[in-house]
Automatic annotation (TrEMBL), chain B:
It is a multi-pass membrane protein. Its main location: membrane. PANTHER family: TRANSPORT PERMEASE PROTEIN, TRANSPORT PERMEASE YVFS-RELATED. The chain crosses the membrane at residues 34-53, 65-88, 109-134, 140-164, 176-196, 233-252. This is Transport permease protein. One of its GO terms (molecular function) is ABC-type transporter activity. Residues 24-255 form the ABC transmembrane type-2 domain. It is found in: Cell inner membrane; Membrane. GO terms for cellular component: ATP-binding cassette (ABC) transporter complex. Belongs to the ABC-2 integral membrane protein family. Keywords: Cell membrane, Membrane, Transmembrane, Transmembrane helix, Transport. It comes from the Bacteria.
Length: 247, 265
C-alpha cells in the first residue's frame, strides 16, 4: 500500500504475520478500511482474536504494519491507540459503580476529566440510547444494556476506528439485533467499524466483509458481491470448508 | 502531563472505591494482624525474652516488637491481593482496557501500584489505631514518620505482586503464591523475631532473613516508627522496588511478556 492510500484509510493492515511458537496464527494479512461497517468474518480459531490483540497492541509483531489514521502502530503506538475504541469480548465495567462513574473512569484513561468528561459521557450514552440509565449501577443492567455501555465506553474519546470483538456473544436475539442496528448507525455517521464475528446474520448487504480463515484473508469485498444472491452462510461455509455452521 | 495525572488519579480512585465496596476484604485485612497481635503475641511474650536492640532504647514487650512486622504483613498481603485482582482483571477485560489506553505502560502500572499502596496504608493506620486501643502505643510522631517508610515498603511489596501477576496465567495457580511467597517471606524475616534470635537456632536461617527484602521493609518501618532512618534498609527496599518494578514492566511489555505467551483463538 502506498503512503497516500494509508493516510486516506482509517485503518490499514499490511502483510501482517504472527506465530505462537511453530503455529502460524496470522499469515500475510492485508486490508484497508474506509469509514463504514466492515465485518471480520471467520470461524473460531481463524485468528480474529490474535488480529484484535495486534490491532490494540496487546501483542506486537515484527511482521507487517498496522496504520491507524496515518499513525504507525509500531512507531507511534500512543497516537495510534488514541484513535481506536475497543470493545472486548470480556466485560470491562465495574459492576458496583454507576454507569456515569464507570464512564468517567474510561474518559480519564484518555486524559479527559471534569465537565468535559461528563459532557462526553452524556454524548456517548445518548448515541447508544442509554442516557436515562446514567445513574444506575451497572449490576442492575441487563446483558444487552451492558454491551451497549461497553460500546458507549469505547466511543468516549471520539475515536476514528471502533473495533468490536464478537460483541454479541451471550446475548439473546433481540439484544443482539439492537446492538447490530446501533453499530450500523454509528458506521453510517462516518465511523470506521471493524466487527469480528462468525455469525453471518449480523452482516448486511451493504457492509464490507473481510473473510479470515486459518490466519489468511480469503476475501475482502462487499457482502452483496460476495454472496451474489446465494445465502451468505453457504458462501462462507464453502470458503472455509464448512468448518463451522454460521447462522 | 495533565493527561497522565488524570489517568493516575482515576486509577487510584477506582481502586479505593473497589476497596470500600469490599467490606469483607477490609475486615479480613484488619483481623489478620490483630489476631497475631492479641493472640500470638500474648502467648509468646512469656517465652521470648528480647534484649535492647536499635531502635529501641529500653526493654519492650513482644507486642511492641511485632507491630512493625504486622504493618509489613498487611502490606505484603495487600500486595499479593492486588496481584490476585490483576490476574483476575487479565481474565476479564479491564486489564486489557487499561493496557490499550494511550499512555506509557509503565505509567499505567505505576498508577495501579500506587492505588494498591494507598489502600495498604489506610489499612495499616486503621490497624495501628486499633492496636492503640488495646494499649499498644508508639511514639506520637512515629505515626507520622512511618508514612514515607510505608509508601516505599508498600511500593516494593506491590511491585513484587505486580511481577508475580505478570508471570501467572491462571487464577488457580495463586494458591502457590501463598505457599511459596507470602509465608516464607513473612516467617523468614524479622517480623516475628530479631535476627540475633534467629542466629541462635541457625546461622543459615539468619542469613536468609538478612537477605529477605521483607526484613528490610519491616526494619525500615520499625526504625521510622521510632523516628530513626535505617539507611541500609531504605537502600535495600528501594533497590528491590526498582528491580521488581522493572521486571514487571518487562513482563507486561507486549514484545516480551505474558501477553505474548497467552494463546488466543
Amino acid at each position: 500500500m502506498t503512503g497516500d492510500l494509508a493516510r486516506m484509510t482509517a485503518l490499514s493492515v499490511t502483510d501482517l504475520g504472527y506465530s505462537y511458537g511453530p503455529k502460524r496464527a496470522l499469515d500475510g494479512v492485508s486490508f484497508a478500511l474506509r469509514p463504514g461497517f466492515t465485518a471480520l468474518l471467520g470461524p473460531n480459531g481463524a485468528g480474529k482474536s490474535t488480529l484484535f490483540s495486534l490491532l490494540t497492541r496487546l501483542f506486537v509483531t515484527r511482521e507487517g504494519q498496522i496504520t491507524v489514521a496515518g499513525h504507525d502502530m509500531a512507531r507511534a503506538p500512543r497516537a495510534a491507540l488514541s484513535r481506536i475504541g475497543v470493545v472486548f469480548q470480556q466485560p470491562t465495567l465495574d459492576l458496583d459503580m454507576s454507569v456515569a462513574r464507570n464512564m468517567r473512569y474510561f474518559a480519564a484513561l484518555h486524559g479527559i476529566a471534569g465537565r468535559e468528561a461528563d459532557a462526553r459521557a452524556a454524548d456517548a450514552l445518548d448515541r447508544l440510547g442509554m442516557a436515562e440509565r446514567s445513574a444506575e449501577k451497572v449490576r442492575n443492567l441487563n446483558g444487552g444494556h451492558r454491551r451497549r455501555m461497553e460500546i458507549a465506553r469505547a466511543l468516549i474519546h471520539r475515536p476514528q476506528v471502533l473495533l468490536l470483538d464478537e460483541p454479541t456473544v451471550g446475548l439473546d436475539f433481540q439484544s443482539r439485533q439492537a446492538i447490530v442496528d446501533h453499530v450500523h448507525g454509528l458506521a453510517g455517521n462516518g465511523l470506521t467499524v471493524l466487527w469480528a464475528t462468525h455469525l453471518v446474520d449480523e452482516i448486511r448487504d451493504s457492509d464490507d466483509v473481510v473473510v479470515l480463515h486459518q490466519g489468511r484473508v480469503l476475501a475482502h469485498d462487499s457482502a452483496e458481491r460476495l454472496h451474489r444472491g446465494a445465502p451468505l452462510s453457504e458462501v462462507f461455509m464453502q470458503m472455509t470448508g464448512g468448518t463451522e455452521a454460521a447462522r | 502531563m495533565k493527561v497522565w495525572i488524570t489517568a493516575m488519579l482515576a486509577i487510584v480512585r477506582r481502586e479505593a472505591l473497589r476497596f470500600v465496596h469490599q467490606r469483607s476484604r477490609f475486615l479480613a485485612a484488619l483481623v489478620r494482624p490483630l489476631v497475631w497481635l492479641v493472640v500470638f503475641a500474648a502467648g509468646f511474650r512469656a517465652a521470648l525474652g528480647l534484649s535492647i536492640i536499635p531502635p529501641y532504647q529500653t526493654y519492650i514487650t513482644y507486642e511492641i516488637y511485632i507491630v512493625p512486622g504486622l504493618c509489613g504483613m498487611i502490606q505484603l498481603f495487600n500486595g499479593m491481593q492486588s496481584s490476585l485482582s490483576l490476574v483476575y482483571d487479565q481474565e476479564m477485560g479491564s486489564m486489557r482496557l487499561l493496557l490499550t489506553s494511550p499512555l506509557p505502560r509503565w505509567w499505567l502500572l505505576l498508577s495501579k501500584l500506587l492505588a494498591g499502596v494507598a489502600v495498604s496504608i489506610l489499612q495499616v493506620y486503621v490497624f495501628l489505631a486499633v492496636a492503640a486501643g488495646f494499649g499498644i502505643t508508639l511514639p506520637g510522631w512515629g505515626y507520622v514518620a512511618a508514612l514515607p517508610a510505608l509508601v516505599i515498603s508498600g511500593l516494593m511489596l506491590g511491585a513484587l505482586g505486580l511481577l508475580i501477576s505478570s508471570t501467572i496465567r491462571q487464577l488457580e495457580n495463586f494458591a502457590g503464591v501463598m505457599n511459596f511467597v507470602i509465608f516464607p517471606m513473612f516467617f523468614m524475616s524479622t517480623a516475628l523475631y530479631p535476627l540475633w534470635k534467629m542466629a541462635e537456632s541457625s546461622e543459615l536461617l539468619r542469613d536468609i532473613c538478612a537477605w529477605n527484602p521483607f526484613t528490610h521493609a519491616v526494619e525500615l518501618i520499625r526504625f521510622a516508627l521510632y523516628l530513626e532512618l535505617n539507611l541500609p534498609a531504605l537502600g535495600w527496599v528501594t533497590a528491590c522496588f526498582a528491580l521488581f518494578f522493572g521486571l514487571a514492566v518487562v513482563g507486561y511489555d507486549p514484545a516480551y511478556g505474558m501477553t505474548r505467551r497467552r494463546r488466543q483463538g
